[in-house]
Amino acid sequence: MPTLVLLPGMDGTGTLFSPLVDALSEVIATRIIRYPPTEGLDYRALASYVSDRLPTSEPCVLLGESFSGPIAIDIAASHPGNLIGVVLCCTFARSPAPLGRWVPVRGMNVLLEHLPRALVSWTLLGRFRTDSLDHALRAAIVSVPAQVLASRLYSVASVDVRTQLAAVGVPILQLVAARDRLVPRRSSREIEKHAPGVTSVVIEAPHMLLQCRPDTAAQEITRFIGGLGVQR
Q1: Fewer CB in a 10 Å sphere around the end CB: N or C, the chain?
Q2: How many whole angstroms separate alpha carbon 201 and alpha carbon 94?
Q3: Domain residue spans of the chain
Q4: What's the CA angle centered on 49, arms 47 and 50, to 5 degrees?
């Protein structure tokens, strides 16, 4: 099996991948690329940061979760020599909330600092919430400065990698959460439109699909990777 390279959600810590890594541990090797915790790098800078850290001696599959979907798409469109597939999870090719670009970073910073914990949990976990998941989510969020999260959220508001998506030359698996309260279904349909060869799988889950349904996600990812073969 190739290495599965995991790109985290907006917190960038990678700690929330633990349930998926555990579910995959016996069949697929994983590598988490964590983002600089104190730097509000934009999408272009993060794509470069990730590219410099991809495996170079073995085939790999790139997984972009939520915020990181556009990064995975952008990198895949540049055709890295050892990349054989892409997994997109609860993500988008174009901003699901473009009006956010008119909100200054400082305004987003204030908004993030005052978001009720219960609202965050309801949006990201919904009825799948457990105390352990809620604690892990809270720990990941508070470990990153609000200014950095605000900068990343600002980047989301203006991102558009639909052109790059059409240029991706490897198979794509898209995992879609049926109960996603953050990324609307139109975002996954847009990915299907611009990448006609994508395979979409809808899973009964909230936005944090990989954390709430790790075993189901692992099964779909394993099936996808197993069908790729090692071509490079």
Answers
A1: C
A2: 20
A3: 3-226
A4: 65
